[in-house]
Every structure is written in structure tokens, then in C-alpha cells.
Design brief:
Blueprint lengths: L3 H33 L7 H12 L7 E2 L2 E2 L9 H15 L1 H4 L13 H16 L33 H5 L6 E2 L2 E2 L9 H4 L2 H9 L1 H4 L12 H12 L4
Antiparallel strand pairs: 1-2, 3-4
Bound molecules: heme C (2 copies).
One heme C (HEC) binds next to helix 7, helix 8 and helix 10.
Length: 233
């Protein structure tokens, strides 16, 4: 049994030690923040993007760093998952991206504001969050290879833009979005010239196309056409 004084001393010393430990740990955490957030790379554009993020109430639908509402996708890794061009296209006109099923509103941002928001999301994506959320999987996993032809694309052979933009709406090998048709075997259905014209401007082929005209460079289109044309089965 502890005497009354011993118990009191035990309480006081124990409390002081725990307080000290938490205090030091808090200081340690605060000291790490500048490095973990890459504070020195925080440009004016990032700061303006953050203000737009707050004043536009993006968190009313999205989460960032796990905080916010669960209506729309988590955006912490949106930059590496979708790439800057997709994000910019989404902010420019969500309705054009998902015709007839718009769930995100159009903010009528100007190009400068869009750049700021993209810069903000890029900066957020580079934060060291001790592994949260997991890095988007943009490679490695192979799609079932049904042909003996070794030129059949495995997922790691896909152009990066395919794994960022196209997979948002199209599935390949059973993985990806279902907004557009699955692209397995597309090279057998459509010839290279048609695919090229389709990617350049879907509306030139189909005025009521449900696929948006995406911001793709000529080089990217060449790369995508070569990739899609070899998906024969
Ligand atoms: C009314 C709800 C709502 C608000 C507010 C909203 N979004 Fe969205 N957002 C969505 C939904 C839903 C999607 C998924 C695509 C779809 O179905 O339209 C989306 C998709 C996105 C995407 C693409 C994500 C991906 O992984 O493909 C980005 C980037 C994005 N939003 C950014 C923003 C930003 C930045 C703001 C604030 C300026 C914002 N959103 C405000 C609902 C919203
Ligand atoms: C925002 C959604 C969306 C994105 C992003 C998207 N697509 Fe599409 N895609 C569609 C829809 C919807 C269709 C069907 C269009 C229609 O018939 O109106 C389509 C059709 C196609 C077709 C014709 C398929 C067929 O069997 O006729 C090809 C090829 C294609 N997309 C390739 C791509 C590639 C490559 C990318 C990436 C650069 C891409 N798409 C990005 C929605 C999308």
C-alpha cells in the first residue's frame, strides 16, 4: 500500500513526466511539418489555389487529407491519379466531361484560377502523409493476357495518360470506369485512323458523343493510337 504522501508524489511526478513527454512529442511533430509539406515549394499559385479550394466549398463534396464530405472522390492524390490536364478539363466544364450525368457544378473558373487549383492539388499530392492515402496504382498489375503475342499490352506497358485519363471512364482487362465502353479488343473493332480521328475530336465523328474532347497533344494521340491498335482481343 502507498502512503498518502507517496501516492501524491507518484501522481505529481507521473503527471509531470507524461506532460513533458507529450509536450516534446508535440514540438517534434510541429518541427517536422515544414519538411513533410515541402513548405519551401509553396508558391503563390498554391496559396491562391488553397483559397479557391476553401471559398468554393470543394469539401462540401470531396475529401482532402481524408477530411470533408464523402459524395465525391478523395482528391489528395488526384494529381498523380488523373494528371493536370484531366483535372483542368474537369474544372473547366464538368458537364462536358460527364454529359448528362453531371454531379459536379461548373464554377466558371478562368484559366488562371484553374492553374492555381491544379498547383494546389499538385502540392498537396507531394505532402509526406506517412503513407496516407495509398499512392494510386498506375502500373505493374497486368491484365490477363489471352494471346501468345507478347506485344499484347500489359498494364505496365500502357501510356501513362491512358492510366490517368482514359481509365477514369473506360475499363481494360476488367479494371477502370464504366462511363464509356470497355476498350478490350478495340484495335480489332476500330482501325488506327478512326481511333486517331476519334481521340482528336469525338464530336467531328459523332456530334452527340458522350466522350469529351480531351486536351491531348499530337504526340500523346500517336502514342495512344499505337497502344489501342494492338488491343486485338
Ligand atoms: C456538388 C458536389 C461537388 C463539388 C462542390 C465539387 N465537386 Fe469535384 N466532383 C464531384 C463529383 C461527383 C465528381 C466525380 C465525377 C462526376 O461524377 O461528375 C467530381 C470530380 C472531381 C475531380 C476529378 C477526380 C477524379 O478522380 O476523377 C476533380 C479534380 C474535382 N472534382 C475537383 C473539384 C474542385 C477543385 C472543387 C472545388 C472548386 C470541386 N471539385 C467541387 C462533385 C463535386
Ligand atoms: C469522361 C469520360 C471519358 C474519358 C475521360 C475518355 N472516354 Fe473514351 N469514351 C467515353 C464515352 C462515354 C464513349 C462512348 C461515346 C459515344 O458513343 O457517344 C467513349 C468512346 C471511346 C472510344 C470508342 C469505343 C468504341 O468501342 O466505339 C474509344 C476508342 C475511346 N473512347 C478511347 C478513349 C481514350 C484513349 C481515352 C483517354 C485519352 C478516353 N477514351 C477517355 C468516355 C470517356
Amino acid at each position: 500500500m502507498l502512503s498518502k504522501t507517496a501516492a501524491k508524489r507518484f501522481f505529481v511526478v507521473g503527471t509531470a513526466l507524461c506532460f513533458g513527454a507529450f509536450f516534446l512529442l508535440t514540438l517534434d511533430t510541429l518541427a517536422r511539418i515544414p519538411a513533410q509539406t515541402n513548405q519551401e515549394t509553396m508558391t503563390d499559385a498554391v496559396v491562391r489555389g488553397k483559397h479557391l479550394w476553401d471559398t468554393s466549398n470543394c469539401m462540401g463534396c470531396h475529401t482532402l487529407l481524408g477530411e470533408g464530405a464523402y459524395y465525391a472522390p478523395e482528391l489528395t492524390k488526384a494529381y498523380s491519379r488523373r494528371g493536370p490536364d484531366f483535372i483542368a478539363a474537369m474544372l473547366r466544364d464538368p458537364e462536358a466531361m460527364y454529359p448528362g450525368q453531371r454531379r459536379m457544378q461548373n464554377y466558371d473558373f478562368d484559366e488562371g484560377q484553374i492553374e492555381d487549383l491544379v498547383a494546389f492539388l499538385e502540392w498537396v499530392g507531394r505532402m509526406d502523409l506517412n503513407g496516407f492515402p495509398a499512392e494510386p496504382d498506375l502500373g505493374e498489375v497486368s491484365v490477363p493476357v489471352t494471346s501468345t503475342d507478347s506485344s499484347v499490352a500489359r498494364r505496365s506497358d500502357r501510356p501513362q495518360v491512358f492510366n490517368q485519363m482514359c481509365i477514369a471512364c473506360h475499363a481494360l482487362g476488367g479494371q477502370g470506369g464504366a462511363v464509356g465502353p470497355a476498350l478490350d479488343g478495340v484495335g480489332g473493332r476500330l482501325d488506327a485512323d478512326y481511333i486517331k480521328r476519334w481521340l482528336t475530336d469525338p464530336f467531328a465523328i459523332k456530334p452527340n458523343s458522350l466522350m469529351p474532347k480531351l486536351p491531348l497533344s499530337d504526340a500523346t494521340i500517336v502514342e495512344l493510337v499505337a497502344f489501342l491498335s494492338q488491343l486485338k482481343d
